[in-house]
């Protein structure tokens, strides 16, 4: 912060000393410097083109008046005892009333409003909850930091640096593509060539690229209901139409409801969020209807890698003989969301266009992340980590399942072994948002499932229950039973009040 750029245009209306002091006091009152030192008198004098003595005099006067304190060999700091008052709304209006006359009118310029889309509204401070039943995040203590650091060290060694430091010029790290082809996709029964694979910044980025390229006015995407709300929003931004599709105990229902679709978004391994698994028979029948009705399937295989079932069903893509399936996967669930490494598999013509679109958007995913991930897989660390986490998640799932069935009375419980969450239909008349807010007061984090349903009038009459989703990948194992017990008691208390 000692290099803080102080933007001031000095003039001849008053002394330089007075103008600089006035500017510094303004910045101090805005808490611009925080706990960091102010620029040295030498640097500031050079930057402003004034004598160093002028800056020294300003700093000394601010020390005398209590705005600054001087620390030997460290420089000048804002006095922590000074009362920094927030700028009032009226003052802010006065400061900007002149500039407002020529400021852009953003309310008319902004043509799309993604901030208005309904979302899960996850508490950013979820990590501070004692019982975080959040979905999609991990316990940081379980991340293989030593192995990741080792791969980072190898990638950043002098003889390896030149392989990735300048990027791959509109292509992906060949090593990462190779290891995905050889060690990850085969586990899902998928065979793909290099030019049929694209590396992305995760599943959501893959879906954004796909809908941006394929979507348009007059194009219809069928989406599971309930389902992945973020994808509905992405499709809306592409000006395409989304239609809700009914699901049952085997996943998406086939038949007439699929006929209007140009594209179909499905989560066959574990339906998002109900966790049900699509049977092999249903998968084959879905592909047959795709051929007959000429629609393309987007398969999100979001939990495949870390699925703790010994023999999970092969991916829908593995049965695809006609290029009808765009397969989307990532390492977010199996490794860490923050790494942002995803991939998609599709026809090479589509991948080529997606690669060009990606180039226009952000060129390519960070090449250092790609190379470190490739090394993490090649060194055997990835498989080792996956085996370790499967054991942990299996034990957590069993604890969750037993505790939920013991303490959740009159609830509709959806639980599929191998899934990372439980989909819970609450007793009638209990609102999931109200429950979420009350649970938070007891340090129990849960997610309301209301936003995962596609808004439609029909649901108001047919959907009587409110739902919550309970994940378990981030919570400490020792806290699962206590957390579920507290939540179960809270549900009972609310249900009793509703009855009375």
Oligomer: single chain
How many strands, which pairing sense, and closed or not: the largest β-sheet? 7 strands, mixed
How is the largest sheet built, in terms of strand order? 4-12-11-10-9-5-6
Rounded mean pLDDT score: 90
Radius of gyration from the CA trace? 28 Å
Return residue spans where pLDDT drops below 50 for at least 5 consecutive residues.
Answer: none
CATH class of the largest domain: Alpha Beta
Proportion of β residues? 5-15%
Can you tell me the CATH superfamily of the largest domain?
Type I PLP-dependent aspartate aminotransferase-like (Major domain)
Total of DSSP H or I helical runs spanning 4+ residues: 17
Number of domains: 3
What global shape is seen? Answer: globular
Structural class comes to: alpha/beta
Number of strands: 17
CATH topology of the largest domain: Aspartate Aminotransferase, domain 2
Give the helix proportion (percent range).
40-55%
End-to-end CA span: 60 Å
């Amino acid at each position: 912060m000692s290099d803080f750029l102080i933007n001031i245009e000095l003039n001849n209306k008053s002394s330089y000393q007075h103008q600089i002091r006035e500017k510094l006091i303004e910045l101090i009152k805005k808490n611009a410097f925080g706990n960091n030192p102010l620029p040295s008198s030498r640097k500031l004098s050079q930057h402003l083109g004034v004598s160093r003595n002028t800056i020294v005099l300003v700093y000394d006067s601010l020390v005398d008046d209590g705005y600054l304190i001087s620390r030997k060999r460290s420089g000048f700091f804002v006095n922590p005892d000074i009362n920094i008052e927030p700028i009032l709304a009226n003052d802010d209006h006065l400061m900007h009333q002149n500039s407002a006359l020529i400021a852009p009118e953003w309310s008319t310029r902004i043509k799309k409003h993604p901030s208005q889309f309904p979302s899960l509204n996850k508490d950013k401070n979820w990590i501070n909850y004692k019982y975080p039943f959040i979905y999609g995040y991990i316990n940081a203590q379980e991340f293989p930091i030593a192995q990741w650091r080792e791969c980072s060290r190898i990638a950043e060694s002098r003889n390896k640096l030149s392989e990735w430091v300048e990027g791959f010029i509109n292509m992906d790290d060949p090593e990462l593509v190779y290891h995905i082809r050889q060690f990850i996709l085969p586990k899902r029964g998928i065979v793909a060539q290099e030019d049929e694979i694209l590396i992305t910044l995760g599943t959501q980025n893959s879906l954004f690229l796909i809908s941006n390229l394929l979507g348009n006015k007059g194009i219809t995407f069928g989406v599971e209901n309930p389902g992945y709300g973020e994808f509905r929003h992405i499709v809306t931004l592409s000006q395409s139409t989304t239609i809700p599709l009914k699901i049952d105990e085997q996943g998406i229902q086939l038949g007439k409801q699929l006929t209007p679709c140009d594209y179909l978004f499905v989560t066959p391994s574990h339906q998002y969020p109900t966790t049900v698994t699509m049977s092999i028979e249903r998968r084959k029948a879905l592909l047959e209807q795709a051929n007959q009705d000429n629609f393309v399937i987007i398969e999100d295989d979001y939990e495949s890698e870390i699925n703790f079932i010994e023999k999970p069903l092969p991916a829908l893509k593995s049965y695809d003989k006609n290029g009808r399936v765009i397969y989307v996967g990532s390492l977010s669930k199996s490794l860490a969301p923050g790494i942002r490494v995803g991939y998609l598999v599709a026809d090479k013509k589509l991948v080529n266009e997606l690669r060009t679109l990606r180039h226009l958007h952000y060129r390519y995913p960070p090449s250092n992340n790609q190379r470190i991930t490739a090394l993490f897989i090649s060194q055997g660390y990835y498989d080792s980590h996956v085996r370790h986490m499967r054991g942990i998640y299996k034990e957590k799932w069993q604890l969750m399942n037993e505790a939920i069935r013991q303490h959740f009375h009159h609830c509709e419980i959806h639980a599929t072994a191998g899934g990372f969450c439980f989909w819970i239909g609450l007793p009638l008349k209990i609102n999931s948002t109200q429950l979420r807010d009350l649970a938070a007061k007891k340090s129990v984090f849960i997610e309301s499932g209301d936003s995962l349903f596609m808004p439609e009038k029909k649901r108001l009459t047919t959907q009587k229950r409110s739902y919550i989703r309970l994940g378990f990948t981030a919570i400490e194992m020792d806290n699962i039973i206590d957390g579920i017990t507290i939540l179960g008691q809270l549900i009972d208390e609310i249900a009793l009040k509703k009855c009375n």
